[in-house]
Amino acid sequence: MPWIQTIDPLKNIPLSALVAAIPVIFIFWALIKKMKGYITSLLALAIAIFIALLIYGMPLKLAMLSTLHGSLYGLFPISWIIISAVFLFNVTVKSGQFEVIKSFMASITPDRRLQALLIAFSFGAFLEGAAGFGAPVAISGAMLVGLGFNPLYAAGLCLIANTAPVAFGSVGTPIIMASRMSDIPELAISQMVGRTLPLLSLLIPFYLVTLMSGFKKSLEVMPAILVSGISFAFVQWFTSNYMGPMLPDILAGIASILSLLFLLKYWKPKSIWRFKEEPALQTSVEIKYTSLQILRAWSPFIIMTLFIIAWGFQPVKDILNSIGFIKFKIPGLDNAILQPDGNPLPIKAFDFNYLSTPGTAVVFATLISIPLIGISIRESIKIFGATLKQLMFPIITIAAVVGYAFIANYAGMSITMAGALASTGVLFPFFSPILGWLGVFLTGSDTSANALFGKLQAQTADTLGFDPLVTVSANATGGVTGKMISPQSIAVGAAAVGLVGKESDLFRFTFKHSFIMLFIVCVLTCLQVYVMKWVVPVYTKINTTDILANASLNSTNADQGYWYLLTLALAVGLIIVSLSINKKSKEKY
């Protein structure tokens, strides 16, 4: 017999919300008290199960199945992406090629402030737009540590920098999800988010550099900060408003990288800034390697980028899913939970899309790169095994955290907390982004947060007389500020830079910055509702028929997908041939 959710088990919504929030409060307390991440996440999961059973009356079987469903999602695709990203980095380091990359970056600029702008902000945003999930923090953080950054700063800066692009991550997936949940067109949500996030994009480069080096030292590189932030914010605004949600991060990241590189050809800071514990460095650094050696060193990341771009196109995903895709429902969970209105709770089947996931794209790129950078198959297998051992505790953390997110959703705890915020009436526009923040904190994903609260945001806005576009968009923009302190993101960042067991240090590093940026988004949302109504785009709601028509249209894109894959093969083949010919030519002479 189906179990019916109880949204207000204590017959007092503020009190019920407080009880539902106990696992969240515990996570904050435990990380502040320096408890290890995997212990924190396992205890938080245990507390959530206890509340679901005792307070919400959820049957034990459903509680366990809900936890299993979430844990599986934590293992795949999330942990798989992290494993693949760290594996790629470890292979590059073991081969000695990362020493070449370090030399190349130092020749562009040995200044840590500018390296952070290039890698944490611009390159990280590009990776977020192409792949999302944990890839930007894992890859960018590992690269910064390899360049000599303090591990805590490397992970912390990448988490904070990842704020600007999250809403358009994974080729616009969070916006697409928000559209499906609210029946508001994707372009309208893209435009609304694109009129809020660029303000954060302007702020974040200055914020990062100031956090690293202090206010006075940040003024020394103000030209670079302005070029990096303005180029990114402008392209993000333009593409989100006129091209839709798929390309803002990819194009803005590329624009920011190219703009900053162009500036550095003609301008250099007066002094080179490095961390206090680092030795002093001369102001002029000559490159030690040839162009071919640099290309070979960067080839794993170039090939990875090409694969991630190709994997981001829906026609390519459709082809890969037609070859390798397993979909199954959790036995005993489907249609076993009813919402308070009597309708079954939508429970998505587990998608084991082992070919189309970004993690597999990174693994393919790594396998192709291995012979190019001089690593044997036997050595690469050892590196992969060492990577799994390195990430054992982060994987446990992620599985437990996502398991908690699922049981909080299925038991009704998430809706209880959301209902308390939605009952604030005229203050709801201020609290609307907090719902998105809460969703990302719980799930580690802006897409999941939009799936969790997108419909509630739209319905509450309609009831209170607000434009639902503003509150649905606020769910996405508020969510980006929760990414940097989500336990899942903290686990990814700690694993990437070798801080496993010190997740609490990373949490304390990002904690206050999350709330500062959340407050900014809350204020902006209030202004958009009550003062700057002109900023809200005009739109017409969509219906299910439109969605089905678009879905059938996408299914006819197989030919286009094959062309994308062919282009990818040609691009990668060109890199391989170039490196092989030059290698043979060098051996001949």
Task: Report what the structure shows.
This protein is 73% helix and 2% strand. By secondary structure, it is mostly helical. It has one domain (3-588). A two-stranded parallel ribbon has the order 1-3. The chain has a two-stranded antiparallel ribbon with strand order 2-4. Helix 6 (112-130) packs parallel to helix 13 (222-242) and helix 15 (291-312) runs antiparallel to helix 17 (358-372). The protein is globular, with a radius of gyration of 24 Å. The relative contact order is 0.16. The model is unreliable at 544-554 (pLDDT under 50).
Key terms for this structure?
single chain; 589 residues; mainly alpha; two-stranded antiparallel ribbon; globular
- Rounded radius of gyration (Å): 24 Å
User: Which oligomerization state do the chains in this entry correspond to?
Assistant: single chain
Tertiary shape: globular
Largest sheet, strands/sense/barrel: 2 strands, parallel
Helix content: over 70%
Overall structural class, as computed from helix and strand content, comes to mainly alpha
Strand percent estimate:
under 5%
Order of the strands making up the biggest sheet: 1-3
List low-pLDDT spans: 544-554
How are the SSEs placed, and which strands pair?
Layout: E1 3-4, H1 13-20, H2 22-32, H3 37-54, H4 60-94, H5 97-108, H6 112-130, H7 135-147, H8 151-161, H9 169-182, H10 186-193, H11 197-213, H12 215-220, H13 222-242, H14 248-266, H15 291-312, H16 314-323, E2 326-328, E3 337-338, E4 350-352, H17 358-372, H18 377-390, H19 392-411, H20 413-422, H21 428-443, H22 446-464, H23 468-480, H24 487-497, H25 503-530, H26 544-554, H27 558-588
Parallel strand pairs: 1-3
Antiparallel strand pairs: 2-4
